[in-house]
Amino acid sequence: MDPQIFSSFIKDNHLFDKTKENLMLCLNHFYKTEQERFHEMFQADLDQVINTYVFENEGVSFSKSFSYDPPLDYISVWIRIYDSEKDYLAEYTAFYDLELNQIDDRLK
Question: What is the CB-side half-sphere exposure of residue 65 using CA atoms within 13 A?
């Protein structure tokens, strides 16, 4: 794929903005349902993570999963999370179908 077309696709569809919105929902849910584990992972409460941590756009890829029949084409977008001291803590990945509907996500 042409790099400029790919970059335009990312920008025109606001993929990182969309993924950051989904990340905020994920963090909220994680904090509400597993507060102790959240604190272990981020060493902070939700407000501190959202307001002082750094969220870096990391990558976008088109992929095909052959574990489905028929194989599933999808887009993954990932954002890295660093604490206020720039230490890497986690990575959030959102998975979208080709119509940009979120089909899954993960925080690791």
Answer: 13
E strands, the chain, in order: 54-65, 72-82, 88-96, 102-107
What pTM was estimated for this model as a whole?
A: 0.91
pLDDT tens-digit map of 17-43: 999 999 999 999 999 999 999 999 999
**Which amino acid is it at 15?**
L
**Tokens linked to 74:** 């999808």
Q: What are phi and psi of 74, to 5 degrees?
A: -150, 165
Residue extents of the structural domains in the chain: 3-107
Q: What is the dihedral of CA 90, 94, 50, 16, to 10 degrees?
A: 110
Between the alpha carbon of residue 23 and those of residues 61, 88, 96, 108, the distances in Å are: 17, 16, 13, 12
Report yes or no: 89 and 82 within 8 Å, Cβ to Cβ. yes
Q: Which residues, other chains included, contact 39 with Cβ-Cβ below 8 Å and sequence gap of 6+?
A: 45
